[in-house]
Amino acid sequence: MSEPWKTTLEEDRAALGALLRERSVRFGKFTLASGKESDFYVDCKQTMLTAEGHRLIGRLMLARVPESIRAVGGLTLGADPLASAVSCISALAGRPVDALIVRKEPKGHGTGQWVEHPGLPEGTEVVVVEDVITTGGSSLKAIERLRASGFVPRKVLALVDRQEGGREALEAEGVEVEALFCRSDLEEPSS
């Protein structure tokens, strides 16, 4: 695998952590997608949608995607920029990994499919990508729909794990879970 960049993965992780703290992490009173209230909020889109965030996320996530995996994706909309970033960086690195999108509702016309993908065969092993894990609900939906569509989810790879039970719920489904950052990483000042 060739890598056209001059930074190490450790340097990229530090840069991504700083970018997340600067652009995405908020403290205050927030209602999460799960309905829970929290004093800590991470709006990953503020980081994921920047050019530098896209590059850093793609490179760091690709490094954690097993060699046997041919596709990454998850529940739209949070997973879409992550899957795009990994797929783009994988092509640059000479290790192509396709992106896929798991719909929230089945396609309303044509085939009515739940999963958009570039013709991947049934039985393809995939990694589910997620911006933030709280309860694991989005990833659990993605896993269910991927399995129903003939894919084999092997791992959930998240940008941030809030450490609120989601990892355990996902592991109970028989998938490995890994996150680039956990809540405590983002509460700390950058070093």
- Give the oligomeric state of the chains in this entry, treating copies of one chain as homo and distinct chains as hetero: single chain
Strand order of the largest sheet: 5-4-3-6-7-8
Order of helices and strands: HEEHHEHEEEHEHEH
Number of E-state strands: 8
Give the low-confidence spans.
Answer: none
Helix content: 25-40%
What is the gyration radius calculated from CA atoms? 16 Å
* % residues in beta strands: 25-35%
Overall morphology: globular
Q: Describe the biggest sheet?
A: 6 strands, mixed
Number of helices: 7
Indicate the mean pLDDT: 92
Distance between the termini: 30 Å
Question: Could you describe the 3D structure shown?
Answer:
It is a single chain. Helix content is 35%, strand content 27%. It has helices at 9-23, 45-48, 51-62, 80-92, 137-148, 166-171, 183-187; strands at residues 25-31, 37-42, 71-75, 98-102, 115-116, 125-133, 152-161, 176-182. Strands 5-4-3-6-7-8 form a 6-stranded mixed sheet, with helices on both faces. α1 packs across α3. It is globular.
Keywords:
alpha/beta, six-stranded mixed beta sheet, globular, two-stranded antiparallel sheet
Helix/strand layout:
Blueprint: H1 9-23, E1 25-31, E2 37-42, H2 45-48, H3 51-62, E3 71-75, H4 80-92, E4 98-102, E5 115-116, E6 125-133, H5 137-148, E7 152-161, H6 166-171, E8 176-182, H7 183-187
Parallel strand pairs: 3-4, 3-6, 6-7, 7-8
Antiparallel strand pairs: 1-2, 4-5
